[in-house]
Amino acid sequence: MTDTTIDLSVLESRSGRSGFAENVNPELYRLLSALDLDREYVRGDGTVLFDSSGRRYLDFAGAYGALPFGHGPTPIWQAINDVRCSGEAIFVQPSVLTAAGELADRLGRIAPDGLTRTTFVNSGAEATEVALKLARAHTGRLGVLTTGNSFHGKTLGALSATGNIKYQSGFGAPVAGFDHIAFGDAGALDAALTAAPGHYAVFLVEPIQGEGGVVCPPDGYLRQVRDICDRHGVLLAFDEVQTGLGRTGRMFAAEHEGVVPDILTVAKALGGGIVPVGAVLCAPTLVDESFALRHTSTFAGNALAARVGIAVIDELTRDDCAVVTNAAVLGRQLTKDLGALAEKYPSVVTDVRGRGLLLGIELTADVNFVGRQSLLGSIAEQHNLTAVICSYLLNVEGIRVAPTLFGTRVIRIEPPLTVSAAQCARLVAALDRALGYAAVGDLDGLFGHLLGRPTVSTPPSLIALRPGRTPDIAVRATDRRFAFIAHPLDLGFFAAFDPALDVFDHSERQDLLRRFAASTSELDPASFVIGSGRVVGGGDATAHGDLIGLPYTSEQLLHLPTEQALRVVGGAVELAISRGATVIGLGGYSSVITGNGLGLGATSRPITTGNTFTAAASLRAVRRVCRERGIDVAQARVTILGAAGAIGRTIGKQLAGEVGSIALVGRQGESSVIAPKLWAAAQEMVASATGGSGSGDLAGAALEVHDDLDDLIRSGHIEFFTDPVAAVKDSLIVIAATSAPHALIDPTDLMDGAIVCDVAQPPNIGRDVRGERPDVTVFDGGIVRVPSGSDFGLTYGLAPGLTYACMAETMLIALSGEFDLRSIGTTLDEDSVERLGELADVHGFALAEATRWREGSQ
């Protein structure tokens, strides 16, 4: 008989995972799963969590401070069980709430002097709402003043008080009456209150900003704001939702400076890690009948929550507040140990701060912290190094930490107050390894677990692995600014971009790329700064530029849905603008997927595809090669792959008057008819051939038949193809300019002695052509040499001193300030082609094709 026993716990786990991923928050699930942070915890015990496989994890994230005694503390469960056994009624509003009264009395005894009136709530955000209502009702004023980078909750009033526009946008916050000043600046508070006498009801502030990045104010700040508020007749409210009840080594953070606020909010820890409970404490004189009878809540102050709160206070005050003392002692030791790590890894850790067991480790945002042009530097610059470290610690070391919400460069250290010294030492040792991997740029050490090979070992020494750090290229006041958007052409590109990626094979690189793309959101776009550099042109002109990367290969970009593609590139454009770019170039397929920039619509800074100068540089290269080989182009046949595109069409129009015939390759139209765009391109080329001083056979034939395209097709001067191989076999000159993400032409496809200008990226001409066909001249038409004295080595795998012509166009526009030269759409201005060529000479951009003609040339 077959055993059909089913493990219900496994089924429930799978159901829970799919239910969360599909029905609760699929967006968050996507972000978590991208870095293997989507762990399902089936049990918690104190500071330890267990997943479904039985693996243990130390929890140093601590539910944002809501776990004063860890997971499932016995005294709190006992309080809950006592309620169940006693039969005490839990929800009896409106009535005399006996348990709530007892909890209020206990809170009043441990709170700063005089804060004996309590209003119960269910969360920290609700506590903020009550504080605001209390202040407005008591003063008769509506103005609320808070600080920038603060966090007070996500209900509408609390969100209005929160000082971060990123989380307010789209929700109608802040509502009228809310203003923000700098945190830690007592002078700013005095100035704001002086400027608006009688306007503000309350100044709401966190003694330590938690979600803002564990930011401590200067010593004496809280005493100063107390004095300033008193002088101006404004209430002072402390948000101690995260800092209260022992977290900072005192019962309340206000005690560190001996300050008593008018209003104090608590939550998180008051629920003992099991029940949501919050409270607002204030002086009795602040609450009148109007407020008390109109502010009610179905759940607030219920007996179960109150009994839990009482048990929490019992545990916090037991043995002369031993738990709180433990937080102070371990906090001092942890601060010392983390400070030692900061000194050991100064390139990675920029600050350690906090109090008690509310600590933050701030990581670098320097794109060059492991040297110029590195994946890890790009991740750091986008404030995502914290997420990488969190992923490593969870999956390799079995330690759970998390970044702060707003200060995304900061890893919070917020374990239960009952954490042990040994557990803290284990965290420090694990962080030592993680930061060591980051400091030397060891991607296998940091990312190996994502690819199925986690390693716990001592990272190589900094001296052994890490090269001398290249100094940053700082922006000068005289620099003009530009940015260029690019992406890896294929998976092989990574080794050229960052040698540290050599340890990964193509499938692993593909997996990493997929994860990086999936770990982004509309709030954090999928683009990142790869590096920066300076270009030195003629006449003392200089331009500083950022290279902004997209985590997609050419083929992946082509397959993105249109809406997503535009959002990805649009996010990169906004990132460039935020960094000061006055012109932004679209490189590679960022141009193709946006319809040569047209799909992005109006932008506050000009955008260019680089197609005009790419065409100009390619034309110069073709003409030079033909001169050096003594080729009579007047009778030569030219094939243009991608003839309907902006670059192919422009090159064809310029060459049409010089050559003998042209073969145009494009997509097939409906019912095998020539595609309209390809036909229109041919008409433009014929008109161009007869409109100038053309001396080629095509120009002569066009004049004889009065530009009749049908006659030129019959005579063989114009041919149309959909098959690239058939088109190139009899052509002496080949221009390759398609958007195909792969090679189209092999060594055997080309005629003897052919000249091939490959403008496409990725190349349309197989790289083996150079080795197998020494008779063929193959060069990259879209490659140019930057001016001497420039320091812009961030050129996506090219040899030093070289760059793509599309990027060079962006540089030229920035250097010259001639923004009308930008390339948008498929129709390029012929005068601009000539003008950009002139500017290239003025600013010292030279053709680089002479170094690329033969296999082995780099």
From TrEMBL:
Cofactor annotation: pyridoxal 5'-phosphate
Alphabetized PROSITE patterns for the sequence: AA_TRANSFER_CLASS_3
Pfam families in alphabetical order: Aminotran_3
Record field: transmembrane: none
InterPro entries, per the entry: Aminotrans_3, Aminotrans_3_PPA_site, Class-III_PLP-dep_AT, NAD(P)-bd_dom_sf, PyrdxlP-dep_Trfase, PyrdxlP-dep_Trfase_major, PyrdxlP-dep_Trfase_small
Entry GO MF terms: transaminase activity
Entry keyword Transferase: yes
Keyword annotations: Amino-acid biosynthesis, Aminotransferase, Arginine biosynthesis, Pyridoxal phosphate, Transferase
Superkingdom of origin organism: Bacteria
Descriptive protein name: Aminotransferase class III-fold pyridoxal phosphate-dependent enzyme
Source species taxonomy: Bacteria, Bacillati, Actinomycetota, Actinomycetes, Mycobacteriales
